[in-house]
Amino acid sequence: MTTANEAAGIKALDRAGLGALVEELGEKRFRVGQIERWLYGVGVGSFAEMTDLSAGLREKLAGRLALPSLRVVTRQESSDGTRKYLVALGDGTTVEVVGLPTPDRLTVCFSTQAGCAMGCSFCATGLAGLTRDLGPGEMVDQIRLVADDFGRRVTNAVAMGQGEPFTNYDATLGALRFMNNPDTIGIGARHITVSTCGLLNGIRKFADEPEQFTLAVSLHSAVQKTRDRLMPGVRGIALPDLRRELVAYAEKTGRRPSLEYALIAGVNDTAEELTALIRFARGLLVHVNLIPVNPVRESGFGRATGERVAVFQRELHMSGIQASVRAERGADIDAACGQLRQRSEKPDKS
Ligand code: SAH
Ligand code: SF4
Fold first, then answer.
1. Mutation test of ligand 1: which of 337, 339, 340, 342 has the most ligand atoms closer than 8 Å to its C-beta?
2. 164 C-alpha to center of ligand 1: Å?
3. What is the DSSP-derived secondary structure letter of residue 118?
4. pTM, full prediction
């Protein structure tokens, strides 16, 4: 079984964990698929509802594990249709989830941890540190919640909410597999993206997973000193090592990860920073995603001008590097990248 927070109950288990449980209870292996469908395809709130399991098994399960559900604490809707939810987990810990609709897509930005230990200076999530890891089921439930609220199928999922997914690697992968299962949520692997602050062994492991999940790496500066200052949690990671890992990733998978780059006025939008970024990205199979940094009150950082963003994009293109500017969504409800924060159940308005 996966290590798990007690409060997550059965939502702390990945598929292997469910397998071990079923075996321990002396049941046949196919029960795993049935339980998975009830939990993440139907979304039941109790074991009693799992009607194709024997009454004895339902009782044994209920006697052993809790089956907590998410509870929506607040729900906000942006003028652009983006919705942000503050949800409470079984133990009252809260995380934020965002649903981003377009006519042909519904993307969910889900959280893998409550808070984050990495402490990036431009990001609201890490301000109060890490509260706890989420279990796989607690991640999948975020997808279900948004699907139900919009009354639509979720087509894309991105682990870009709260948390650093690769410090909660096994639970995150477990969640991705549940999301990918055509019998439950059925999101195509390529439409499931994990964003990391660049943890090398996480990238290495992710490259070896059999599914074609998508990778995004938060770079934010190709100058070591700047990156160390912006992202103190990954200060120990040398940029040439990160670059080598991306080369290895491309060789193993043939897939193109994106490099996230939040442009901050006067910090990483200078000519020197641009030269370093081009040197880093040139020759790599990557796509650079430029994001004018979203304001986080405590950081004191300002966004780069539209002109600087355009210069970055143009110069990258001219160097043969794919680059796009990410459209900001949900900023009026603090739902844009980096604006998700730990809130208490009764959010104050300060
Ligand atoms: N911990 C992971 C995933 C969650 S953050 C990571 O860091 O990649 C999701 C994305 O939002 C990351 O690319 C992150 O760097 C970016 N981000 C954080 N704060 C931001 C801000 N204020 N403005 C724009 N993007 C931000
Ligand atoms: Fe954590 Fe990512 Fe925010 Fe950094 S940017 S503090 S790694 S959530």
1. 337
2. 10
3. S
4. 0.94
29 CA distance to ligand 1 middle (Å):
39
Each residue of 190-242: pLDDT tens digit?
999 999 999 999 999 999 999 999 999 999 999 999 999 999 999 999 999 99
Distance in Å, CA 26 to ligand 2 centroid: 42
Measured by CA distance, the residue closest to atom 8 of ligand 2 is: 163
In whole angstroms, give the CA distance from residue 186 to residue 146.
Answer: 14
How far apart CA 218 and CA 239 sit, in angstroms, is: 12
- Ligand 1 atom 19 nearest Cα: 338
DSSP 3-state assignment of 238? coil
Instruction: Name residues whose C-beta falls within 8 Å of residue 107's C-beta, 6 or more positions apart in sequence.
Output: 99, 100, 101, 154, 155, 156, 157, 158
Distance from the Cα of residue 72 to its chain's centroid: 19
The count of other CB atoms within 10 Å of the CB of residue 320 is 10
pLDDT at 71: 96
Residue of 27, 36, 96, 245 marked catalytic: 96
Looking at residue 264, the DSSP 8-state letter turns out to be B
Q: Describe the chain by its helix, strand, coil percentages, rounded to 5.
A: 40, 20, 40
**For this structure, is 120 an active site residue?**
no
Give the three-class secondary structure for 258: strand
Token code pair at residue 342:
């730990």
Distance CA 55, CA 59 (A): 6
E strands present in 209-332: 214-218, 258-263, 287-292, 322-325
Q: CB within 8 A of 130, min separation 6: which ones? A: 113, 114, 115, 116, 117, 163
Catalytic-residue membership of 337: yes
